[in-house]
Design goal:
alpha/beta; 60s Ribosomal Protein L30, Chain: A; Alpha/beta knot; four-stranded mixed β-sheet; about 20% strand; elongated
Length: about 240
């Protein structure tokens, strides 16, 4: 039986409806909610052939843990994914990112938000990923996790080998023997691996990468940036360089 998940809030539900990123079984709207958000959700759901039910707040509370839903939730299925090759379709100078070992779904969603906003062509995830924590990931990403093109690889090594064969350079965020993101040429076809806060990128993978990247600091500071901050810095420097292509 397909697992049922919950998306909470207008932004998350609208993103899933617009992107057709997953099966949506039912949208619930609190019966006293008559604002523009409720009207737009009703229009989007009708276009997608998804039923909308007006229910009491008590019914919605049975599905959620917090209070950030704003009276709109959706009962959904698992995230649809593409093949690794499909992420390259339509990309003249492909840029693919993989988030591997990110253990906090909020951090995962925030990182996806930065990369999507900066124009990444696709996201690769491992078989154990945070898309099953759909509510947190989608809210943290402001719906970007539903809109971004997603593929699954069994490991970072598998994904890197696949994209290297197709002409992409392999880059990692890693402080060891790394160059500044401002000195690296990030306009080339690129597969970028971001590791989690605890484990980072494995030494064996970093050794085989074409380029190691670090975010330079404005003062002496010995601690690494967190995943979300590092992702944002990398994402928008890559975007800045690629605007000149």
């Amino acid at each position: 039986m397909t697992e049922q998940l919950i998306l909470e809030g207008f932004i998350s539900v609208a993103a899933a409806l617009e992107a057709a990123s997953r099966p949506i079984h039912t949208v619930y709207v609190r019966d006293d909610k008559r604002d523009a958000d409720a009207l737009k959700i009703a229009r989007l759901a009708a276009s997608a052939g998804v039923p909308v039910e007006r229910v009491s707040g008590d019914v919605i509370e049975q599905y959620v843990n917090g209070t950030t839903h704003g009276g709109i939730i959706a009962v959904v299925g698992e995230r649809r994914t593409l093949t690794l090759d499909a992420l390259l379709v339509g990309a003249l100078h492909p840029w693919i990112v993989m988030l591997d070992g990110v253990e906090d779904p909020f951090n995962f969603g925030q990182a996806v938000r930065a990369f999507y906003a900066a124009g990444v062509d696709g996201l690769v995830m491992g078989p154990r990923n945070w898309m099953n924590a759909a509510s947190t990931v989608t809210r943290a990403s402001a719906g970007a996790s539903e809109r971004i093109r997603v593929a699954v690889a069994q490991s970072a090594e598998e994904a890197a080998a696949f994209y290297r064969e197709r002409g992409l350079k392999i880059a990692v965020a890693d402080a060891r023997r790394a160059i500044s993101i401002y000195d690296a040429d990030l306009r080339v076809p690129l597969f970028l691996l971001i590791g989690g806060e605890k484990r980072g990128v494995t030494r064996s993978f970093a050794e085989q990468a074409d380029v190691r990247l670090r975010v330079p600091y404005g003062r002496a500071f010995e601690h690494d940036l967190g995943t979300t901050a590092a992702s944002a810095a990398l994402a928008f420097e890559i975007m800045r360089q690629r605007r000149a292509i």
